[in-house]
Amino acid sequence: MMFRIMFNTAFIRSNVLMLNSDDVDILWGSKDRHPRNFRAEVLFCEIGGISLPRAPTTTLNGDTN
After folding, report:
1. How far is C-alpha 4 from the geometric centre of its chain's CA atoms?
2. Hey, which of 15, 24, 30, 59 would disulfide with 3, CB 3.0 to 4.6 Å?
3. What is the per-residue pLDDT across 11-25, written as a single tens digit (0 to 9) for each?
4. How far apart, in whole angstroms, are the C-alpha atoms of residue 19 and residue 42?
5. Is the whole-model pTM more than 0.90?
6. What residues does the C2 tensin-type domain cover (predicted)?
């Protein structure tokens, strides 16, 4: 893992979230790996009609979905 971010999607404009080095929580001991002008761009899009695979789950009575 390089860094971790948490955000509220209500603040996303135009489906793009731009983060600079001050906005991300860089792991201890890895600050020297990233330049001071580090940026991450997070892109969002609509899923549309795509069906995502579901992991099987087991209910209390033992049935698998």
Report:
1. 8
2. 24
3. 788 888 888 877 776
4. 8
5. no
6. 1-47
CA dist list (Å): 36 to 21, 22, 47? 7, 9, 34
Q: So where are the chain's domains? A: 3-43
**Rounded distance between C-alpha atoms, residue 53 and residue 55, angstroms:** 7
The DSSP line for 23-61 is TSEEPTT-GGGS-TT-EEEEE----TTPPPP----B-TT
Structure tokens at 26: 């860089």
Distance CA(65)–CA(58), nearest Å, equals 7
